[in-house]
Every structure is written in structure tokens, then in C-alpha cells.
Design brief:
Organism: Lederbergia citrisecunda
Protein name: Glycoside hydrolase
GO molecular function, one term: hydrolase activity
Number of helices: 11
Radius of gyration: 26 Å
Order of helices and strands: HHEHHEHEHEEHEHEHEHEEHE
InterPro entries: DUF4015, GH
Structural class: alpha/beta
Pfam families: DUF4015
Strand order of the largest sheet: 9-8-7-6-3-2-1-11-10
Strand content: 5-15%
Distance between the termini: 65 Å
């Protein structure tokens, strides 16, 4: 209650108890002074805390970026990749800050609670950002959220247990539990460290439960946190946990002036929601600045009526872009669409089902996006080996 409210309550109480007019007048004068003091000391609205990293980056005309591992960012490859971006129409780098194994890729300040987790992949993160700032290469911090094989080693209670062991998938990877707010805070705090360093955007990846979780959710042991008493079915609990994390992260990062983006499976845009992993395309999109669907042609089945999608990158990307646009147009405040496209060869698909991806195949995907009005995109190559001589804006087409 405000000082004015307390004063009114006190005066009413004195009147009901039969206080004299003189006593009541003294109280009115005293309380009027207190209200005056409060107005001088406390403004109507306090300014919101806003952190300034001291770095300045202009948001590009449209983000056209590449993926960069921690090892590449901290090694000799970094200069090569900077040259690639600086000499073409590329203008952004998505750099691993917390990688696919849950390792933080640079040493954090000694007073950080995560200082002991920082690796030395990027030995001089400030110098790295100095270079990016000088070249005006837009820096995006990639943080792999719920796929994490590092945290469960010391906190198995934050993971999924298979009997007495931490559950791992077929690739030997662990996940942490999206139901637990302690896991949320852990990842958000790492994101805040990246924002303080000067990254302009936080990109959350693996914002989901493990693939096929609906087939094992009743066998594994794990906590439900605040969702324990929910009357919803398991699918909706997972959807709410994932969506709630994204909304929570965006709110916590707001004072740091960074954009928030999320990577999401392309196929989730084709479904009301992905039941096992908890991703709902529309609900996540409502809580981010940028949505980055992973739409690599090699990762699709014949959903769009394309028997061998890897062989038809233009058609596949165009069909997806049309579908995504329709979904985003249903939202009141749609995010920027910035898909991940393919710059790698998916030989694992077997003879006759794949092709070598070079300049032609990359440009076909870019053209498909452009033809549907999508100007932003990111290139994925796990080894950071990108096709040469690509026209990244197709301005001659």
C-alpha cells in the first residue's frame, strides 16, 4: 500500500475511534509531508536496468550467417572465416558458446559461478569480438540448451535416469530436464554472460526433449518440477515446459538488449505440435525475435510430395517457405524468419538419394527463400567448410 493509502486508512481509524478534530488534523499534516517526501524520492516509474556491453554493432540489412564452432572461433580457422564473411555478402557468425556436449567454449570471469566449466577453445573472446566489431560482423551466441552431457556428470538429478544410470541416446549424448527451473536458470545465466561479453543475439538450440521421448517418458525417472500437479497429459506438459522456457529466457535477457532466437526442427511447422520433443512452432515463435527452422533438404521425407528432397533443394525450400509464411501470418507479432539451410553433403542417404552440395545447390536454396520473400538465412556445415564462390544475395539473378 502507498503512503497516501496508509494515511487515509489511519485517518479513517482515528475517526471511528472518536479522535478529536485537532488530533486528526495533526495526522493529516504529518502524512501529507510523508507523501510529499515520497514523491520527491521515488519517481512514478523507476528506469529499467539496461546493461551496456560497450560494443556497437548495426543490425545488418538482412542477416546472412555461417555456423562457427568454438574450436574454429579460437583457432587459425577464425581468420579464414572472417575473410570469407568480409569478402562476400555474408555478414554474421553463429558461434558456439555452449556446445553440443554442454561445454562452455571460453573461460568465464573468476567470479562467475560457471568459471570451472569454461574450456579454452576460444582463448581470447574479447579479442575475437574486437575483430567482429571492427568488421561489423554480427555476432550470435549459440547455446545448446537441453542436450547436455556435461551438467549431468555432477548433477544427475537434473537429467533423465535409466535405472541407476544417466540415460543416453544412440549417439551417447545426455539431455537435461526441461521441466526443471534450475536447468532453465543455468542456461539463461550462461546466455547473460555471452550478452555481457558483447554478443548481440542469443540463439538457443536443442530447445526440446530428446527425440522419441514419447516412447520412453514412462520408463525413465525424472522430476516434473512445477508441472508435477498439472492435470494436462504428458504431451502438453512437454509443450508447456519448452514454451515456458523460451518466454522466461526472453524476459530475463531483455535488460541486456540482445535479440533472442530459437532453432527448431523444420517439420514442427507441419504439425500442431511435435508430441515427443515438446516443440510447438507457433507458441515458440510468439516468444522470440527470430525463428530459425532447420530446413536442410537432406532431413526431409516425402512430406511435400518430393520423393528425394536432397536432389531438389529449390523445390523443397520453396514448399517449406510457403507453409511457414502461412503459419507466421496467423500470429499477432510474428518473429523474423531466418532458416538454417544446407551447405554439406548428406552422403549417408545412400547412392541415388543425395548429391554433392556446392555453389549451385546452396544458391538454389537461397533463391527459393528469396522467391518467397525471406531474406535472412544461416548456413550449416558442421566442419565450417563452406562452398566457394556462392552469390549470397543473388543480386545478379
Amino acid at each position: 500500500m502507498t503512503v497516501a493509502g496508509l494515511a487515509a486508512s489511519l485517518i479513517w481509524q482515528l475517526q471511528t475511534e472518536g479522535a478529536s478534530a485537532e488530533e486528526i488534523e495533526k495526522v493529516k499534516i504529518h502524512e501529507a509531508r510523508q507523501v510529499s517526501i515520497q514523491k520527491k524520492v521515488l519517481p512514478d516509474s523507476l528506469p529499467r536496468f539496461v546493461f551496456n556491453s560497450g560494443r556497437h554493432f548495426e543490425y545488418p540489412d538482412a542477416v546472412r550467417g555461417i555456423y562457427v564452432t568454438g574450436h574454429s572461433a579460437g583457432g587459425s580457422r577464425f581468420n579464414e572465416l572472417v575473410k570469407l564473411v568480409d569478402s562476400t555478402d555474408l555478414n554474421a557468425m553463429v558461434i558456439d558458446v555452449k556446445d553440443d556436449w554442454g561445454q562452455i567454449t571460453y573461460k568465464l570471469p573468476d567470479d562467475s559461478p560457471f568459471a570451472h566449466l569454461g574450456q579454452n577453445y576460444i582463448q581470447e573472446p574479447n579479442e575475437m569480438l574486437d575483430v567482429l566489431e571492427e568488421k561489423q560482423i554480427y555476432p550470435i551466441a549459440r547455446i545448446v540448451v537441453f542436450k547436455d552431457s556435461t551438467l549431468p556428470k555432477t548433477r544427475p538429478d537434473l537429467s533423465f535416469m535409466d535405472g541407476k544410470k544417466i540415460w543416453v541416446n544412440g549417439r551417447g549424448e545426455s539431455f537435461v530436464n526441461p521441466f526443471l527451473k534450475e536447468v532453465w536458470d543455468y542456461n539463461v545465466d550462461i546466455a547473460i554472460e555471452a550478452a555481457k561479453l558483447g554478443f548481440q543475439e542469443i540463439q538457443f538450440d536443442y530447445v526440446r526433449f530428446p527425440e522419441g521421448f514419447e516412447r520412453r517418458d514412462s520408463q525413465l525417472k525424472y522430476g516434473l518440477g512445477d508441472y508435477k500437479d498439472s492435470k494436462e497429459d504428458n504431451v502438453q506438459k512437454r509443450v508447456h515446459a519448452v514454451t515456458d522456457f523460451v518466454a522466461y529466457a526472453k524476459e530475463k535477457l531483455a535488460p541486456y538488449g540482445v535479440k533472442v532466437s530459437v532453432d527448431i526442427f523444420g517439420y514442427t511447422a507441419t504439425l500442431p505440435e511435435a508430441p515427443g520433443i515438446g516443440q510447438n512452432f507457433s507458441k515458440i515463435s510468439e516468444n522470440v525475435d527470430v525463428i530459425s527452422s532447420m530446413i536442410y533438404p537432406s532431413h526431409w521425407t516425402s512430406y511435400f510430395g518430393i520423393a528425394k528432397p536432397d536432389l531438389e533443394p529449390y523445390k523443397l525450400v520453396k514448399e517449406y517457405a510457403k507453409l511457414e509464411k502461412a503459419k507466421l501470418n496467423e500470429l499477432k507479432n510474428p518473429p523474423i524468419s531466418r532458416p538454417w539451410i544446407q551447405d554439406f553433403t548428406a552422403s549417408y542417404l545412400g547412392a541415388g538419394n543425395y548429391q554433392v552440395y556446392r555453389k549451385e545447390q546452396v544458391e538454389a536454396q537461397i533463391k527459393a527463400l528469396y522467391d518467397e520473400g525471406i531474406k535472412e538465412y544461416l548456413l550449416w556445415n558442421a566442419g565450417n567448410n563452406y562452398s566457394p564462390n556462392v552469390d549470397y544475395t543473388l543480386d545478379k539473378k
